[in-house]
C-alpha cells in the first residue's frame, strides 16, 4: 500500500518534471510544419551556371519514407530494445527517446529555416525551371539559353512551376542533417553503452559505433549523386545534424569519457522518490552525490547499481557468470590488485571504482 502510493507520487513528479521537455519538442515540430509552408527566397541565377544544369532525377536513391525509417525508426527501435531488454531501465528508455526526439526536432526547424532564408538553387534547378531534359514539356535547349545583358536571370523565366518551390531549397541538405541527427545520436548512445573511450582499444566497439555514422554518410552522399544537392549543402547539413545529435545526447547522458557513460542522468525529481534514495536509508544527500547519484537510473537493485553506489564488488575474479551478448554493455568487475611494479592499480580511487566494460 505504502509502496504503491510512493510509486504513484514518483510517477506524478516525473510527469511534472519532463512534461515541459516534451511540450517544447512538440512546439518545435509545430513550428517546423508552419515554417515549411513558407515560400523560399528566390535567388537570382545564371542559365550558364553549369552547377545547376543537371537533370532532375524522378527517383531518388533514398526517398523520404526510407530516410524516416533509417534515421528515425531504426535509432528509436535500437534505443528502445537496449533500454528495455538489456538495461531494463525505464529512465534509460525515456532519456534515450526524449534525446532522439529533441535532436531531430531541432534539426528539422533549423535546416528548413535556413533553406527558406537562403534560397539556393539545386543542381537540377534549370531542368525544374525550363524542362531541359524532359521532351514532354518541350523544354528550351541549353544552347538557346542566355541571361539578360549585364544581369542575372530570375524565376520569372521559368516555364515549369510545379517543381520550382523545392528547387530553391538546396542549402543545407535536409537528408544529410536528418540522417546525422538520428544516426549520430544512435552512435553516441552506443558509444556510451560500450564505454568506447575506456583506453583499452577494442576494435569491435569502434565498428559498432561507426556503423550508424557510415550509414548516415551514405545517405548524405546519395544526395550529390542524385543531383539534389551541392557538396557544400551536404557538408553543412551533416554538421548541423551531428551538432544537434551531440547537443541532445549531452542533455540526458554524461560525457563519453565518464566512467558512468552507460548510465543516463538520474530523473529530475526529489531524491525521496529516487530508487534507493534517503527514503530507503542510503546515507545523506552529499554521500549519494559523491557516490554517483547523478548517474543512477531506475535499475535499482541490479549488480551494476550496487557496484556504482557501494564501491567494489565482492564477486570473485574467476566468476564469469552472465557473460554473453550482455558483456558488450556491462561493466567489468573492479580490479583492486596491485600493478606489476607494486603500485596501486589506477583503476581504483578510494571507494569510487573506475568501471570499464570488456
UniProtKB/TrEMBL annotation:
GO terms for molecular function: phosphatidate phosphatase activity. InterPro entries: PAP-like, PAP2/HPO, PAP2/HPO_sf. Residues 280-326 are annotated as: Disordered. Residues 286-298 have a biased composition (Basic and acidic residues). The chain crosses the membrane at residues 21-38, 64-85, 97-118, 173-191, 203-222, 234-253. SUPFAM superfamilies: Acid phosphatase/Vanadium-dependent haloperoxidase. One of its GO terms (biological process) is phospholipid dephosphorylation. GO terms for cellular component: membrane. It is a multi-pass membrane protein. Keywords: Membrane, Transmembrane, Transmembrane helix. Pfam families: PAP2. It is found in: Membrane. Residues 95-249 form the Phosphatidic acid phosphatase type 2/haloperoxidase domain. Belongs to the PA-phosphatase related phosphoesterase family. This is Phosphatidic acid phosphatase type 2/haloperoxidase domain-containing protein. It comes from Linnemannia schmuckeri.
Amino acid at each position: 500500500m505504502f509502496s504503491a502510493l510512493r510509486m504513484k507520487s514518483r510517477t506524478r513528479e516525473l510527469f511534472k518534471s519532463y512534461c515541459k521537455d516534451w511540450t517544447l519538442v512538440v512546439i518545435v515540430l509545430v513550428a517546423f510544419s508552419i515554417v515549411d509552408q513558407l515560400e523560399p527566397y528566390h535567388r537570382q541565377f545564371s542559365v550558364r551556371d553549369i552547377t545547376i544544369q543537371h537533370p532532375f532525377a524522378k527517383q531518388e536513391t533514398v526517398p523520404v519514407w526510407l530516410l524516416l525509417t533509417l534515421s528515425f525508426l531504426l535509432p528509436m527501435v535500437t534505443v528502445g530494445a537496449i533500454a528495455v531488454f538489456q538495461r531494463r531501465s525505464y529512465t534509460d528508455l525515456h532519456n534515450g527517446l526524449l534525446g532522439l526526439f529533441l535532436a531531430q526536432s531541432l534539426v528539422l526547424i533549423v535546416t528548413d529555416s535556413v533553406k527558406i532564408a537562403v534560397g539556393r538553387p539545386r543542381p537540377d534547378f534549370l531542368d525544374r525551371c525550363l524542362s531541359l531534359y524532359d521532351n514532354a514539356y518541350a523544354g528550351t535547349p541549353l544552347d538557346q539559353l542566355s541571361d539578360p545583358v549585364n544581369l542575372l536571370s530570375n524565376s520569372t523565366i521559368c516555364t515549369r512551376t510545379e517543381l520550382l518551390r523545392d528547387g530553391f531549397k538546396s542549402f543545407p541538405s535536409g537528408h544529410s542533417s536528418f540522417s546525422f541527427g538520428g544516426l549520430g545520436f544512435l552512435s553516441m548512445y552506443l558509444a556510451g553503452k560500450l564505454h568506447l573511450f575506456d583506453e583499452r582499444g577494442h576494435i569491435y566497439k569502434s565498428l559498432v559505433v561507426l556503423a550508424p555514422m557510415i550509414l548516415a554518410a551514405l545517405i548524405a552522399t546519395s544526395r550529390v549523386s542524385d543531383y539534389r544537392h551541392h557538396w557544400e549543402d551536404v557538408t553543412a547539413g551533416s554538421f548541423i545534424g551531428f551538432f544537434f545529435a551531440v547537443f541532445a545526447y549531452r542533455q540526458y547522458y554524461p560525457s563519453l569519457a565518464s566512467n558512468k557513460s552507460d548510465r543516463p542522468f538520474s530523473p529530475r525529481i526529489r531524491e525521496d522518490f529516487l530508487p534507493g534514495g534517503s527514503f530507503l536509508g542510503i546515507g545523506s544527500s552529499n554521500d549519494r552525490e559523491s557516490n554517483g547519484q547523478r548517474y543512477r537510473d531506475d535499475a535499482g537493485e541490479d549488480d551494476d547499481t550496487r557496484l556504482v553506489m557501494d564501491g567494489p564488488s565482492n564477486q570473485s575474479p574467476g566468476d564469469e557468470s552472465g557473460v554473453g551478448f550482455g558483456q558488450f554493455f556491462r561493466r567489468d568487475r573492479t580490479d583492486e590488485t596491485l600493478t606489476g611494479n607494486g603500485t596501486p592499480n589506477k583503476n581504483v580511487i578510494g571507494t569510487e571504482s573506475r568501471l570499464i566494460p570488456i
